[in-house]
Recover the amino acids of this structure.
């Protein structure tokens, strides 16, 4: 009786063994890479300027700017006049180094 049960289990195992296991196979192919982004649009050239001359209030200023091929050049009309008149700092005072303190363990 025991040998018949073993024989039946062996036949069932052989019947299931002739088929490949489900779920094993080649992996799915990788998706195609996205297309490259389009190049940026060129910067259009421009020129900009203004000027103010008001004798009553004393305002006299101007600015100009020009862009060609992505390079911007121009002048804001501002000229900084900075004057610093300070005495030089005193030299650092060097003294004797501090005496070491005794350490107790």
């Amino acid at each position: 009786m025991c040998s018949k049960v073993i024989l039946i289990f062996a036949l069932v195992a052989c019947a299931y063994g002739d088929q490949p296991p489900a779920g094993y196979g080649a992996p799915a192919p990788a998706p195609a890479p996205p297309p490259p982004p389009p190049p940026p649009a060129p910067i259009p050239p421009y020129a900009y300027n203004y000027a103010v001359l008001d004798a009553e209030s004393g305002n006299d200023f101007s600015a100009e700017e020009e862009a060609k091929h992505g390079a911007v050049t121009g002048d804001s009309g501002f000229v900084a006049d900075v004057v610093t008149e300070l005495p030089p700092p005193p030299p650092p005072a060097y003294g004797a180094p501090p005496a070491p303190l005794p350490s107790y363990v």
Observations:
- The two ends are 87 Å apart (CA to CA).
- The mean pLDDT is 84.
- The longest helix spans residues 2-17.
- The helical segments are 2-17.
